[in-house]
Every structure is written in C-alpha cells, then in structure tokens.
Amino acid sequence: MDLKALYREVILDHYKKPRNTAALEHTSIQARCKNPSCGDRVTLSLDLDNGLIKGVCLEGTGCAISQASASMMTMAIKGQSLERAEQILQAFRGMIVQGDPEPQQELLGDLLTLQGVSQLHARVKCALCGWSALEAALEERHGEEVDLELDQSLPRSSAGG
Amino acid sequence: MDLKALYREVILDHYKKPRNTAALEHTSIQARCKNPSCGDRVTLSLDLDNGLIKGVCLEGTGCAISQASASMMTMAIKGQSLERAEQILQAFRGMIVQGDPEPQQELLGDLLTLQGVSQLHARVKCALCGWSALEAALEERHGEEVDLELDQSLPRSSAGG
Amino acid sequence: MDRQLLERTDTGMPTRAVALDIDKIRADFPALKRRVGDFHLAYLDNTAATMKPRQVIEAISEFYSLRPANVHRGIHLLSEESTDAFEAARAKVATLLNAARADEIVFTRNTTEAINMAAFCLAERLKPGDEVLCTALEHHADLIPWQVLRDRKGIELRFAAVRPDGRLDLEDWYSQLSERTKIAAFAMVSNVSGSENPVAEMCAAVRRVGAISLVDAAQGVPHMPVDVQAIGCDLLACSAYKMLAPFGIGALYGRYSLLEQLPPYQTGGSMISSVSLEQTYFAPPPSRFEAGTPAVGDAVGWAAAIDYLQGVGMQALHERELELSRYLHERLSEVPGLKMLGEYYPGKPGIASFGLDCAHPHDIAQFLNEEGVAVRAGHHCAEPLHRALGFDSTVRASLYLYNTEAEVDQLIHALHTVREIFA
Amino acid sequence: MDRQLLERTDTGMPTRAVALDIDKIRADFPALKRRVGDFHLAYLDNTAATMKPRQVIEAISEFYSLRPANVHRGIHLLSEESTDAFEAARAKVATLLNAARADEIVFTRNTTEAINMAAFCLAERLKPGDEVLCTALEHHADLIPWQVLRDRKGIELRFAAVRPDGRLDLEDWYSQLSERTKIAAFAMVSNVSGSENPVAEMCAAVRRVGAISLVDAAQGVPHMPVDVQAIGCDLLACSAYKMLAPFGIGALYGRYSLLEQLPPYQTGGSMISSVSLEQTYFAPPPSRFEAGTPAVGDAVGWAAAIDYLQGVGMQALHERELELSRYLHERLSEVPGLKMLGEYYPGKPGIASFGLDCAHPHDIAQFLNEEGVAVRAGHHCAEPLHRALGFDSTVRASLYLYNTEAEVDQLIHALHTVREIFA
Ligand SMILES: Cc1ncc(COP(=O)(O)O)c(C=O)c1O
Ligand SMILES: Cc1ncc(COP(=O)(O)O)c(C=O)c1O
Ligand code: FES
Ligand code: FES
Fold first, then answer.
1. Which of B27, B120, D194, D327 is the most exposed place for a label (fewest CB within 10 A)?
2. Cβ-contact D119, D149 below 8 angstroms
3. How many CB atoms lie within 10 A of CB C362?
4. C349 within 8 A of C46, measured Cβ to Cβ
5. Residue C168's CB: how many other CB atoms inside 10 A?
6. Hey, are the CB atoms on C378 and B123 less than 8 Å from each other?
7. DSSP helix/strand/coil, D196
C-alpha cells in the first residue's frame, strides 16, 4: 500500500474539504462518536424522510483518516434508504476491520479507495469513527455519544490476526 | 561437601539424641524461635548465675539441621559467660550466613563441623533457628517468640551472592 | 494400593491410546539435560513450575530481538507488531480455554493476582451477612484474599471441609451453599493432595443459588483440556509458568457480561477512556483491568507454550499424566514408613504429597536433591489443608508431560537411601 | 532556540567528556538493525519502551534454559539457583538506586503497580481532611490512583500547576504543601514535556511538613544516576523495560522503616508468616508485598540490563543524552509550523513533544513511520498536561544511549515530507 498515494489521492481532499458540512434545516436524529484513545470526534445529523436519508450533516475534529472517512461516508449514504446505509456500514466494516480481501464493490463504490487503511492496524479505529456515529444513528440513539472502544464490532482479537 | 557424611557424622547423632533437654530447676530466661517457612520451633531456657550460663534446656521440633544445630549450640554455651556466648553466636553466623571462609575455630570448636550447611542456601535458616532463640535470650526478651524471617542478621541479599 | 490398579486403566480408555513420544519431547527441554552431581536431573517439582522448551525460549528471544516496543497500538512498525503479538497471545489463551471471545481474557501476573483482582472487584456487590464459600483445601492464593475481603466488608467466610482421603467433602460443600452465598471459590485440582473437584457440577450449583463461581485452575489448565463454557464458571484463574511458559504472566478469565459490570482494579495508563484532574472514565474489559504496560514478552512466550501443548494435544498429555500418576502412586505405596497425604484413586492427577516416619520433609528433599531428584518440601502454600490432615509439612512429587517411569524409579531409589540414612 | 545554545554545554562539563562508543553500543541491539521499507529504523520512542541488547536477551534465554524453577528457596538445585538469581537481581536494583539494603526493593509489574501499591498501602493512614499533593504534569499512573484514594478515603487531592514552558510551577507547589499534606507524589522527569523536577529539594520540603514523598522515576532511573538516599524520598517507582530490560517487572523502592509499617497489598502465597482458616500473619518486607510467584525471568533480564548500563556508566550515558537532546531540540526548532509542548532549556532530558500546524499528530506519526522513524502520537497518558498547555495530542520523539545525530536528521527530514504532503 502506498501511503502517500492514499493520502494524496483520497484522504487529503476530504480532510481539507469535508463534504456535507452545511447545517440541516431539519434533523431527525443526531449521534456522536468519540475515539477515547485520542479524543477525536465525529457528530452526524440525519434528516430522515420515509426511510430515506434525505439530508446529512457532518461535524468533527480529528486526524485526516477519521475525518476523510466520515466525509466519504456522508456522500455514500446521502439519498440512500436506511436499509442500504446499514448494508454499506457492514460492507465498510468488513473491508476495514475484517480485512475482507474482496470487498463489496457495488455497495462501497468510492469507499474502496480506503481499503489500504485495513493494513494500518493502529488507524482502523480512525476510519471507523464516523461509521460508529452512523450505527448509533441507525439504532436511533438520538443525541448519544458512543465510545469507539465500546464498539463491539471491533474485536480486539482481530488485531491479533 | 559430602551431605551423607555431614548428616552421618554430626547431624543425625544430635537429631536423634539432642543434648541438654532435661528441664531446669531454675529458669532465668526463656526465648523461642519459629521458622515461619516450615513451622519448626526451638525453645531455649537458660539458668543464669552472675553472668554465667549455668544451665540450659532445649526443646524443639523440626528438621535434623535445626535440631542438631540447636543441640550443639547448647553444648557450646553451657558454662560460658554471656559475653562469650554472644561471641560464639556471632562467629556461628559469620560461618553459616556470611560463609566466612576462615571461621573462628577457637570460638566454634565442634560447631565447625556444621560449616557445610552454609552451602545449603535453603537450609541456612534451619541452622539458625536455635541461635535466634539464643539471641532473644541474650537480649533478655523473656518468653518471647521471635520469627526467623524477621531476623535482621539474615540479609536476603546475601542469598544473591 | 492394590495390585489390581495396575491392570485397570484410569480413564476407561486403553492405556497409551495416544502415546506421546517422550524422548522427542524431552529433547526440547534444555534444563532436562542437566546433571546434579553424578545423577541425571529428575525434575518432579512441576506443580511449583515447569521447565521451558526451546520453542518458548526462542519465541521470547525473537520477540525481544525484533519487536521489543511497547503495545497500545503505537503507530510505528515495531509497536504494531508488538501489539499484534500481544493480542494474538490473548486470542490464543481464549482458544485454549474455549472462551467465547478474546476480550474475556484479562492478563495478570499470576493466579494470585487474578484472584486478588476478582475479590477486589467483586467487593462492592457484597453487604454484611453475605457469604463467600471457600474450601479447606485451597492454596493460600485462594484463601487469604477472601479473608481480607471478609475483614473489609464484614461478610461471612465459610469453608467446606476436606475428607481424610484428601478430597473435598462435597456433601459438606453442598450443605453450606445457600441463597446467602454470593461467591464460591474453589480449586480445580488441589496442589497438595492432587485431587480433582467436579467443577462443572459445582458451578451449576453455584449458578442455581445465584452466586458467582471462581475456579482456581492453576493446577487444572496446564494438565487437561479446560473449557470454560462447558464448566460454566463465571471466573477462572491460572498461571502461565506452570504450563511451559515464562514467569510473570497469568490470566483471569471472566464471562464478558460479568466483567463489564466490574469496577477497575489497578488504575493508570491504558485503562482509561478519558481523564481530567477531577474525574476519570474507564475503558471496557479487558483494558479496564490492565493498567500500565503489560508483560508483553511473557505473553508472547505463553502463546508459544500453548502452541507446543496443543501440538502434543491436551487430551493425550492428560492421559499420559494419569498413566504416570498411577505408576508414581503405586511405587510410593511400596516404600516402608511412607505416609501419603490423601489417597490415590484412578484418574487422580500426578501430584503426590507424603511424609516418611523416620525423617523430616526438608531433610528428605535435601537427600533427594543429592540423587538428582527435584521435589518440594513444606506446606506448599496450603497450611490449613496440611493441618486438617495431620501434617506439618510434606514432600511433594509432581509430574508433567516430559517425566518418565525411570524418573519415578529414581525418586523411589532416593527415598530408600533416605530410609537407610535415617532409620 | 538561539544559536548560542550550541556553543554552551548543558552540564558545565566539556561536551563528550566521556564519549560513548555508539557504534559499538548499537551493534548490541538486534532490533536497531531492522529496516522499515527502504529506510533504516530510527527508533525514537524510548520514553514508551527501549530496545533490548543481546546481553539481556541472552540472560533471559540462559535462565530459562538452565534454571527455570520456581523461587522461594526450594531445596533442589534448580530452585536454589533460581532463587539466587532472583535475589541477586534485587540486590542489583538496590545498588543501582543506592538503597540502604536490598530489602527496600519490592518487585512489581511496572511503575503503575508500584504507585497503586503505595496508594493502597498508605490509605489506612489517612483520614478525611488530609491532603495528597500531586501535580498537573503527572502520567495517569501517578494521578488516577490518587483520585481513587480520594474517593475512597474522602481526602483532598490537590494539584500543583504546570507553567507554560512545560515545567512544574514550583512556587505553586510550595504554596500548596502544608501541614495538612500527608503524601506528595511527583514525577522526576515528565514523560511529555521532558522537564525535570528538583526532587531532592522537593523531598526535603515534604519531609519538613511530615508528609511522605513518592517519586515517579519511570523517566528518571533509566536516564541518569539516581540515589534514593541523596534524594531523600520515602518511596520511588520505576519500570525495567524503559531501561533495556524485559517487560513485566518494575520496582517500588521504600525506606525500610516505612515499608515495615505498611499493610500488605495483594495476598496469597509467599507473603505470609502463618495461615489458618481464621487468620493470617504476614511476612516482613519485601516478601509481604510480593504475593504469588514473581516474574523471575524478567528480574534476571533486568539485572543483565543494569550490568549493561553500569558498564556504559550512568553519568556518561546521561551526558551523551543531554548532548543529543540539545541537538534534537535545535533541529526541531528549525521546522516551520512546529509547536513545542514546553520549552527547551539546557540540561533538559531527551524528550520532545510537539505538533505541526498543518497535520494531526497521528497522521504525522504515520508518515514518520513510512520513513522509518518510530515516534508516539497521542496524549502519552498525560491528558491533563496536554489540556493545560492547549494541546489535544502531540508527537513525541525521545532518546536513549544508542540514538544518533543521523537519526535526529532522519526525523527532521521526515517532518519536512509531512509538511510537503499536508501543506
Ligand atoms: C492451586 C493453586 N492456586 C494458586 C497458586 C498460586 O499461583 P501463583 O503463584 O502463580 O500466583 C498455585 C501455585 O502453586 C496453585 O497450585
Ligand atoms: C513518568 C511515567 N510514569 C509512569 C509511567 C507508567 O509506567 P508503566 O506503564 O510501566 O507502569 C510512565 C510510562 O510511560 C511514565 O513515563
Ligand atoms: S487519531 Fe483520533 S481518530 Fe485518528
Ligand atoms: S525445615 Fe524447618 S527449620 Fe529446617
């Protein structure tokens, strides 16, 4: 994996210009995630309409990987059904956490460019920060701040693989 | 060091027939020592007369080394002045604990036959049990039971030598 | 012991169903090649600590040669590798114990720390009048922490009795287990009498009264297949160095849903979620219970030891040990004036504690060492058990996968020498 | 930093008074030969853990190959040897710290456990209204245990402030020290700002108010001569793996007359004098504080590490580190957009924490690793210090005896790469 290329071609763009940062007119659900090992944070607001993600707003501070991953996530889920967002979430986790060698292209689209992060074991959590906020939102945990460490989808034993 | 010879020539004799076990008519001071690592014990009673150890009585249970060493001790100190008993005590410790290569023959006499015990690191404490009771008696700690582990004369670091 | 014993098999399976290649195994252990004076070393002090195979020694050397960095997911290569090795060791211990997930394994220094941690973390659930049920055959490590807890929380500490044959008096244990019992702690195998407890059955009974079970498996995990889910225990403690691994590491297994509810034990780095001068939020298990920099190299050595044991096969190892245990007890029974602490029964693990009528245990051990036989003398950190069975101290011989019939013979020969000298 | 600095010497002694033969030293460390991609490894994460020389690795291998038996004075040969090696390690640590006697050294897992033990054992001397004086620049290991103590005993926990230059505000510290202070705990060297405290002077002040001093010397002992009698501390904590030794061992030094008065911490085997089901009598220090089987192999490795360090000479090592520290800080000061946490001063130990205006510390560390430079990113277990100085997290580069000017240059080069990519 070419770290410079990964950053230059994908991450820095979203890090410097995160997408979907404009405040929503209407917020159906808001959830936050904090990575306790560094204090970095993502706040995600969704405007839901009849099972569809009509609008999404991202706020956050943190490393380039966490913020870029969250920014790309907003693009992937905007306009999608809640069901599909859940599928994208699982596919992304499969790629980054389990290191799925054949990630689900159809669901992931541009997110595939983040595949290399799965090899940066110490940064896997960074890439997941926004997604854990999404998970909390999908579970309708309005206003809640989840802790990335508490995230059961991140088995420590996977680190031993 | 020939362990069999040490036991056969010295230790077993005193272990099987400890000397000076007859009760005293008059006891000036009594002190006990317990080795907490095994529970073995020596009780020493002295009949003092004008700075002289007129009579001595030994009671105890324990391993052959502890009981033989105590028995030989009673022979060495009986009839001696308190001062000389103290000197014998120090000489014995020097031989057994510090491993003094040239132990003080004049003070130790027959006790010299126990010199080999200084090489049995785990048994050094055994050889000292009676002597720690003697020390307590010399310090006039009447009726007291001292703990061999507490014995400051037995630096753990010496074990590292 | 009657002659018949030799003809029976201990496990119902044909003897040596899976024969271990003991010569091959012995060749892996450098210390077994040592001599004591003119004698081969016969190492029979396995209950205290086992020897280490070169595979474990090499794994430690390799770790420190290549990736001696701190863990906790540092971003640089060596720290990545060190963290991966550490978490792989956790996963390996989890597999050995058949834990539901790696996060149920908390690394500790040893069994003692695991039990102290459990007692400390469970303390706040107890109120005066509550009971902790212990047994009279525990190692001090599974006894004194409960005394401390008793004195701290004003609870009752009860002890199930030991039978004259060295086994737990199960009837007494059941009679003391009640709704008042909040914690029941007991050994899987006694480190003195060698007798084994029916831990699965006991854990089920503990569950029925709504209490928490803690199994001291220091002498279980090294010697037989252990499945925490099948046993149904809430907590289980063991030490690595008793199973071919380095000193300095052990584990507290805990059911995750229980661990989650427990407060931390030691506090400091790497067990926190956030810290201010005023307040601290703690991380989830197992991090919550692992303050400070862990014993990474020792964990790596433990993983290599588990690989080695699993290569041999825990069931095969266990059967071989039972076979040699039978031989050990049989030969001991032929020594005149020898008094066993507890009785042999078919299937009894390879731990035998005894005295001789003519000599003190420490003198016996001294002469055994002269003939190359390594055993322990003393109360083996189980004073109450010794007293209950009328001993001050004993000599203990104990077996592991590399021991042989010839080493047992060497022990017996040396015991006869002791008799000659002392009798 | 001004140019003059380079011309001054940090210690008043001529630079390189005792030159270390760094090439020769480096040859002893197998991990330093590793490469990361196309780059040589530049290991600058020494505050987290140091590399291990082959002398230490071989000492561990030798121990486990020849005498892997349990300690506590077993009577057989291997246990004798193992016990001797363990107690020799204790004596060696005592010599390194110039303790009055070997029994003042209690072996622990690490600094964290040493401080937890101290806080626990001192608890019963405290009553509501008593104060513990800590500082805002402590590692979490020297902070959270005191918070726990505060909550448990209802005492006051006070914090001396940190100055903007990263050093302890001594004036504030003195103003908070009073007759109400019962314990004062402070670091010898901050693991983030790298600044050093005048510990001897502080301990004298603590003694004057009748309180107990605890020095967190995790970053002191590895890097300079430390003399507990000259410092006059009551307690001092350190970790072995930060000074060339294995993970899994550390020490609490305690003045013997204080240790004698303290209750035990963990309980179990080998720390008792006698045990019945009802009551237990505890052994004197240090045994009283070392329950269960200790990390013997790690202790043996520590002894070998101390031999190695004393062979180099602690004073020579210290001077060399100060020299390289000056170079490190000077080169860092040339990097545009770099913001130091704290300020350099002549004689500042070789720990430098900083941020860049264009990139997040974790991204910086990621790119540094790409060029073979190993550093830490984060709050380094000192969140309050970071917050006090206006940082969320930093990149930390830290030095030890084997580091070179060329490795500092490699760091600087990599930082420029980061700037290119992010700016
Ligand atoms: C049954 C049992 N429990 C507990 C222990 C204590 O183990 P450790 O010293 O490793 O803490 C032992 C060790 O001999 C043991 O055999
Ligand atoms: C100043 C200081 N105190 C305490 C600690 C904690 O040390 P350990 O993790 O070895 O317990 C560290 C480790 O980085 C430290 O630097
Ligand atoms: S470093 Fe904090 S999320 Fe990446
Ligand atoms: S074994 Fe107890 S004194 Fe010798």
1. B27
2. yes
3. 25
4. no
5. 24
6. no
7. strand
State the SS3 of D254-291.
Answer: ECHHHHCCCCCCCCCCCCEEEECCCCEEECCCCHHHCC
- To probe the interface with D, which of C47, C63, C112 has the most D CB atoms within 10 Å? C112
pLDDT band of C7, cuts 50, 70, 90:
very low
Given a cut of 50, whether residue D99 has pLDDT beyond it is yes
Structure tokens at C75: 């971003």
CA distance A155 to chain C (A): 8
pLDDT tier for residue D3 given thresholds of 50, 70 and 90: very low
Which H or E run contains C64? helix C54-66
D203 catalytic, yes or no? no
Residue C188, both tokens: 């899987």
Q: Which domains does chain C show, CATH number per domain?
A: 6-52+313-422 (3.90.1150.10), 58-310 (3.40.640.10)
Contact C392, B37 (CB under 8 A): no
- Burial class from Cβ neighbours inside 10 Å (0-12, 13-18, 19+) for residue C271 reads buried
Residue the block writes with tokens 């029976």: C8
Q: Which two tokens stand for residue C311?
A: 């290569």
Contact (Cβ atoms closer than 8 angstroms) between residue B53 and residue B78: yes
Catalytic, out of D233, D238, D358, D381: D381
pLDDT at residue number B148: 77
Give CA–CA dist D120/A50, Å, rounded. 57
**Considering chain C, what percentage of its residues have pLDDT values greater than 70?**
96
User: pTM value?
Assistant: 0.94
Reported ipTM: 0.93
In chain A, the largest separation of any two C-alpha atoms, in whole Å, equals: 45
Question: Which pLDDT band holds residue D185 (cuts at 50, 70, 90)?
Answer: very high
Q: Dmax of chain B from CA atoms? A: 45
Tens digits of pLDDT across chain A (161 residues):
899 999 999 999 999 999 999 999 999 999 999 998 888 999 999 999 999 999 999 999 999 999 999 999 999 999 999 999 999 999 999 999 988 889 999 999 999 999 999 999 899 999 999 999 999 999 888 888 887 765 544 433 332 22
Specify the ligand 3 atom closest to the Cα of A129.
3
The rounded distance, in Å, linking the Cα atoms of D214 and C185 is: 36
Q: Tell me the residues of C at the B interface, defined by beta carbons under 8 Å apart.
A: 359-363, 366-367, 370, 377-379, 383, 392-393, 421-422
